[in-house]
């Protein structure tokens, strides 16, 4: 029994040894590691080997060793960011705040002068309203044609301009100028005459569908337009400028050297820029005292009626009275002329007659025994709308033949003629006053030995010591002592009777 237990123990030990041998064969063969330990809080190595030899460094040592490479990488990164920023600034100017602001560039000039004149012309003539037809677009440019329906005139049909325009308004202004010139020429030739206004069928007014835009605040553009028309002044011209997405405007008016507006004040739209320029023009007129005091935003501006001209100077009336008294003190051999009337004793025209300067010049020239005034026009070589006008009196002698009252470089034939007539009227009034003064001087020194005078208003003829003075026009009878010879003479193309001793 003891041998059996012993054998069992031997067998158990053998199985245990075999199992341990099997486990030993299955283990992985790892390389042996060095017995080195590093301290986290110490600068020295606790092991036997230096870690830098195996590629392990401290952070400060690594950065100091590669400082040059790190600085080069930082500079390269900054240069790349600067290039990207410059590219963004070129695409969007608002991001670049250090660059100087862009200078505004003119994108077009806006003026409605010819369009307004064309509408006034066809309304005055009573002809149908013209029809405008537009073609094109904002990218390719605009073209326009205008026709006058209802008129059998080929000259006024399908009028157009060859070139293209940036906007419809510029195209309409250009073709309106061309149509206005042709319409005025046809009116002078008599092909277009003023017609009567036709009433709509059924007695009902035609409906006009107009789109009215509500504008915030005061409409300075409309106020300035009414003011210029009320004073018969030329219409303003608006020149638009663009700077990026903003706009500015300068307003120019003929006769004003300095434009209204500013290129420094930017607006979000062209309309606001024009309103601001018109506002500055209105404020300038108000500061000069030219703006009407009774103006209201509802009633607008109306033209002032011309006041009747004042009567002639007192010297002319005294001359008339003295002439009438002398004519009654002598025994005349001819039937006396009728007494003067009020209309004949005034230099200017009556209130119910035309009061233009040209009409007044014609009346005064007749009283001064001058021929009908002749106005000679000379257009400007570069702009035919400006004229130089002078007045001439045929057979007026070296002093009055002309040129008189020269008006230089005035816009429009009618205004140029009126300006010349105004200057000519001042000249003729001076001639009349000089003649009246000389007549008074001669009459003050009349004595018994002088050959004298008689007559009615309209002219006066005297002789003193061989000097002859003729004042105006009329039928005269010279009277004096008995035994004088009656002679009929002509002085300044007037037939007068003279009694000579």
TrEMBL record:
Residues 320-335, 342-351 have a biased composition (Low complexity). GO terms for molecular function: RNA binding. Residues 207-216 have a biased composition (Basic and acidic residues). Residues 219-287 form the DRBM domain. Gene3D superfamilies: 3.30.160.20. SMART domains: DSRM. It comes from the Eukaryota. Keywords: RNA-binding. Coiled coil: none annotated. The keyword Transferase does not apply. Residues 191-216, 296-351 are annotated as: Disordered. This is DRBM domain-containing protein. It comes from Neocucurbitaria cava.
